[in-house]
Design goal:
Blueprint lengths: L1 H34 L6 H25 L2 E8 L5 H9 L7 E4 L6 H4 L5 H4 L7 E6 L8 H5 L4 H20 L2 E9 L2 H13 L9 H7 L2 H15 L6 E5 L3 H15 L36
Parallel strand pairs: 1-3, 1-4, 2-3, 4-5
Helix pairs in contact: 1-2, 1-11, 2-11, 3-11, 7-10
Length: 294
Amino acid sequence: MGKKNSRAAEKSAARSKKGERQEAAGLAAESAVRSAPGKLSAKAYDKALKKLHIELVKLQEWVKLKGLKVVIVFEGRDGAGKGGTIKALTEKVSPRVFRVIALPAPSEREKSQMYMQRYMKHMPAAGEVVIFDRSWYNRAGVERVMGFCSEQQSVEFLNEVPRFEYYMTHSGIILLKYWLEVSPEEQTRRLKSRITDGRKIWKLSPMDLKSYNRWFDYSRARDDMFKISDSAHAPWVVVPSDDKRRAQINTITHILSKVPYEEIPREKIKLPARQKPGKYVEPDYPYQYVPDVI
């Protein structure tokens, strides 16, 4: 009886600790969302994101210390906000730990390989978080809808992917899969802005234009993908993304709640005194300076 009580107390303490960590990670997001019933304001977003970035750095250091392996998959239609969410997630952490994989179209050599082969080589080693901006699920989405693979190849992929992800998770990888769901009206608005805004024109590919009018083909492909690959060991999490700021805050908060981490104690840092110039003299050199245009 004593052992059972002891184990129960340990489990309760672990749950409490995890709850405290999740509460700290999500505090900013919760307050921002509650105070902004409409679209999240820039001020609320910046305040929430700053706190979440601090938590992400803590997570990063814990991943390195404990040798965790994390894979985060972002999928969704063109214009759903995958790139912006990934940018918000990674802008304050080390690219040596958080690696973003956004593969181009496969080469002829890669087309001849086993389909999963080009993704396997990007899987994380200990102490890494790998983020896929689109992933192996291309075969269930864009490749299927746009005819880049046969229907048989797509069906075979869907039959195999639960097993593939089972092996991933049972090898110690923490796998998180997010589907960003954008409405047709918001997708249209975002794609039109890519046409008219010179800062965004690079985001509009010929494939975006070809796939734009196949909304329901993509919907059917998404439904089939969820039906087969939404498993207990690798579930899909849907992120409503018409409000980009809210989607980013909610997604990062969810990631922090799913990857176990603790804050690593650090010694107080103090900058050392800078050396004295001694005999050093600034040279009389004709430096070329960048023009001051503002």
